[in-house]
TrEMBL record:
It comes from Polaromonas naphthalenivorans (strain CJ2). Keywords: DNA-binding, Phosphoprotein, Transcription, Transcription regulation. The keyword Transcription applies. It comes from the Bacteria. This is Two component transcriptional regulator, LuxR family. The keyword Acetylation does not apply. The modification 4-aspartylphosphate is found at D57.
Amino acid sequence: MNPTVHIVDDDADFRDGLAWLLDSRGLPTRSWSGGDMFLQSLRPGNPMWECCVVLLDIRMEPLSGLATFEQLKAMGWPWPVLFLTGHGEMSMAVAAVKNGAWDFLEKPFQNNLLVDKVEAARQAALALQADSQERLLFQQSLAALSAREREVLDQLLQGHYNKNIAEHLGITPRTVEFHRANIFEKLRVNSAVELAHRMGRLA
C-alpha cells in the first residue's frame, strides 16, 4: 500500500511544484484547486477514502482550508491532514492541530522538511489502516462466538476463575475450560490478560 498525497491549494504554480517534488521522491499525488473540489470528490466507500494524506492550504477561496477541514471532520474523515500556512497564519495552524489536524508547515519551507513530515503522516495513515483492519477482524471473531462462549467471555473479563464461572453458569469446570480454549482460539489470544487488552483496544 502506497498512500496517495492529496494536495489541496488554489495556487496552481505552487500546487504543481509541490506535486513535482513529492512525485520525484516516489510519493504518489493528486492535486485539487480548492477545498470545494476535493470535498465534492468524496463519497464514503469510493477509492478516495482509501489510506491517504491531505496537504491543505489554510487560506483558500471560496472555501478556506479551515472550513474544508471542519467538513472533513463532520464526514468522519480518518486520515492525516497537514496544513500549509503562510506568514501570519501560525495561530490558525496551531488551533487546527489542537482541533485534530496532523501537523502544519509554514511557507516557504525546506523541501526535505516537507517530505519528512509528509512521510511521517503517511506512516501514521498506514498504522491507522492496519489498526482498523485488525479491529474489523477482531469484531468479526467476536460475532462468531456462540451464546455460551459469550457468557464465559463476559465472566472472564470480570476476572472470575473457571470454578466461579462454572458455578455462576451452572456448568462444569471442564466445560468452562472447553469454552475458554475455544474463545482464545477464535480471538487469537493466549491468556486472559491479553484478552482483556485486546477487548479494551479493539472491541
